[in-house]
């Protein structure tokens, strides 16, 4: 999925933004988690094999 594709602009982006604001009304922590999951889904859409690499990189950066 590319940033200029119709699937991103008409499906992924609106669902992500609306979900974020709906969840943020109740909890900012859960809203941040929603964005993290949406990000993993976005990058996993291209190649699922890169999700463990992204998680390991994020975990290392958080620990550092």
Describe the structure.
There is one protein chain. With 64 residues, this protein is an all-alpha fold. Helix content is 80%, strand content 0%. It is flat, with a radius of gyration of 13 Å. The mean pLDDT is 94.
Characteristic terms for this protein:
single chain; 64 residues; mainly alpha; 3 helices; flat
Topology (elements, then pairings):
Elements: H1 6-24, H2 28-46, H3 51-63
Q: What is the ordering of alpha helices and beta strands?
A: HHH
Rough outline = flat
Number of extended strands: 0
Low-confidence segments, given as residue ranges, are none
Q: How large is the radius of gyration? A: 13 Å
SS class:
mainly alpha
- Could you report the average pLDDT, rounded to the nearest whole number? 94
Largest sheet: none
Share in β-strands:
under 5%
The oligomeric state of the chains shown is single chain
Compose a concise summary of this entry.
The chain has helices at residues 6-24, 28-46, 51-63. Helices cover 80% and strands 0% of the residues. The longest helix is centred in the N-terminal third of the chain and has 19 residues, at 6-24.
